[in-house]
Amino acid sequence: MISAEEAKLLEPYFAKSETSEITMRQAEKVSVETGICLRKVEWFAIRKGFVPRRYRHNLGTFSCAGQLKLLESKVVLIGLGGLGGHLLEQFGRAGVGEIVGVDADVFDETNLNRQLLSNEGNLGKEKAYQAKERLEKINKAVKFTGFSCCFDELPDEVWQNAALVFDCLDNIADRLKLAHKCSEMKCPLVHGAIAGWYGEVGVVWPESEMLEKHYQGQREGLEKELGTPPFTAAVAASLMAAKGVQILTGKYRSTQPTIHFFDLLEDDWENIQL
User: Fold this and answer.
1) Which helix (H) or strand (E) element contains residue 244?
2) How distant, in Å, are the alpha carbons of 202, 203, 217 from that of 213?
3) Distance of alpha carbon 100 from the chain centroid
4) Cross-strand partners of 270
5) Per residue of the chain (274 residues), what is the pLDDT tens digit?
6) CA 20 to 30 Å from 171, out of 1, 30, 119, 202?
7) CATH superfamily entry for domain 70-273
8) In this structure, are residues 232 and 265 in contact, taking their beta carbons and an 8 Å threshold?
């Protein structure tokens, strides 16, 4: 994560202290004075036993070791709409170190009902650019790279070193294309989809063909018929974020390809193994 030279520059700042915490302003001051990016400062602080205050309420769940793994991780969000916007928000607050966001679209009025990144003032603006602005207000330590294009137009280096890819797309054809791409790259894919009161989330391991088995020739989802309300998007994205953090921190325990279905109207939850 950091070089020996960077560690040497940072060491004096954490040699002696009466507290085991470091505030956001203190970390920013260290970053400015050393020229070392804020994410590395936070990572080094945790290694030296200093908890960045912004992550204090993460550690009971993640542990210091888990928080370090999150800061070290790179994830790719394909789609920055209803699911992707919530994921960006949660991963930024969780302290996932590097986020790539991909969406060729701009915001319009139909997004306002559920897309966290949209507001009345940014209609017509690129989702990738708005995602960057939002994340900078949440956590400057997180590195964000936005691409206003389709995922199959991304340069090869975007996929390199990605720990996880997140399927936040809105149609079956693109989901299957993305699953195939991730299988080629040997990278796990966290899938999510919503329609009306219903949603599904699953971890697609490389070469499992889980989505192909799930859709079995189906071409259209139910979202166009049933709509996509705000609470369904928030629930599905939160489940996707939880699965992602489990994988990144080594807490994911499932050994079978499984899709988790939920029905918020009937309060029904079901896990289907494929």
Assistant:
1) helix 230-248
2) 13, 13, 9
3) 9
4) 261
5) 899 999 999 999 998 766 789 999 999 999 999 999 999 999 999 999 999 999 999 999 999 999 999 999 999 999 999 999 999 999 999 999 999 999 999 999 999 999 999 999 999 999 999 999 999 999 999 999 999 999 999 999 999 999 999 999 999 999 999 999 999 999 999 999 999 999 999 999 998 999 999 998 788 778 888 999 999 999 999 999 999 999 999 999 887 889 999 999 999 999 998 8
6) 119
7) NAD(P)-binding Rossmann-like Domain (3.40.50.720)
8) no
Q: State residue 247 phi and psi, 5-degree precision.
A: -65, -45
User: Are 163 and 111 within 8 A, CB to CB?
Assistant: no
How many Å is the maximal CA-CA distance in the chain? 63
Distance CA 158, CA 152 (A): 11
Specify whether the CB–CB gap between 45 and 214 falls below 8 A.
no
Q: CA-CA distances (angstroms) from residue 214 to 43, 78, 137, 273? A: 40, 20, 38, 10
**Hey, what are 20's tokens?**
């085991």
- Number of CB atoms found within 10 A of residue 108's CB: 11
Instruction: Say how far apart CA 258 and CA 224 lie, in whole Å.
Output: 25
Of the CA atoms within 13 Å of residue 217, those in its CB half-sphere come to: 0
Paired tokens of 62:
């993640």
Please give the structure tokens belonging to residue 198: 């219903």
Structural contact between residues 77 and 90, judged by C-beta atoms closer than 8 angstroms: no
99: number of Cβ within 10 Å: 24
Give the contacts of 150 (CB within 8 A, at least 6 positions apart).
102, 104
Domain residue extents for the chain: 4-56, 70-273
